[in-house]
């Protein structure tokens, strides 16, 4: 493994949101735009440039926050990117998430015909993400972004989703989130796991060597592709009441209920990992971002006695586990956020309120990273010898699946797993470098 100094990233040309973790705590908003006038759309990108912070400016422009700009494949076409350049983008990005829904397991209630408009319709051309540590600074950065598009009649806001950290930065399921971040070689940004070597920059950024020493296919010309990344964005509605009721019906008591929940996720609600605290929650451990990630699976729990091999967190990031697929080749840089209010403690009936997670992940290869993880590690269990077991929390379970919890002397099984997470829609986006944004704006 090369040292971080072996690779020098062009941080001043990379959008801040492509490398830096989101603020802690955070508030934010996602805004989707449709471009009806290509000339005005290009002018908009030019005006956005002063608002977008680079990765060399971790605190954001004027110490406020930062805006990230993503463009869909159809958006690139509408903005006038030449056809010969469009053909150099990966097939899965060209097709879009909706067209690949069936292979991703987005069927039934998660199928595109049930998605929240305009997601998956082709109307999404430009996406803006604004994140900040507090509402005051968010208002400042959002107003700066709004000033860039409100004067253009040919650019229309078609979707807006506010997000914010819940108390304790927990997801709607009640688990602390945003705990694990990889170190990217050459970025100077530390990771959260001291036992994990930095991941090659080419796994997340285009134009740099990846874990196998290759440079992933990069859109051309070089000014368009280099220093860019791809974003996968999905609006995931969570059925919290059904999840709580499922656990209540199968647990012996409240303590067992908490244990079953931890076994499904791989961590206790505080964020303490089962590998380091298998028998009881440890809030002090969960609150220590470095200690709570200082473990590996193959080295510390190879058989999954502490943390089941099929647990959600272990599926999403198997670390050093010996499984089908080399974990470092399928690593995602998650930047997910929560939306909607928490369901009050103890409530077991659905209140009809929309709540969940805006799943966001950056990568250089949509096929080898997000799509592999979704189809092989989330939707199946073949990689650890249980092909019929899906992710117990976010997998496309239909009521007939099960989840195995290794235990001595007799293993435990949860059966009849229903769907706890429904995909309300998503997009594949390209996050260009700052120089690429300028190049597109001047077409």
From TrEMBL:
Protein name from the UniProt record: Dyp-type peroxidase family
Molecular function via GO: heme binding; metal ion binding; peroxidase activity
InterPro entries per record: Dimeric_a/b-barrel, Dyp_peroxidase
Cofactor(s), names only, from the UniProt record: heme b
Keywords: Iron, Metal-binding, Oxidoreductase, Peroxidase
GO cellular component, one term: cytosol
Family, similarity comment: Belongs to the DyP-type peroxidase family.
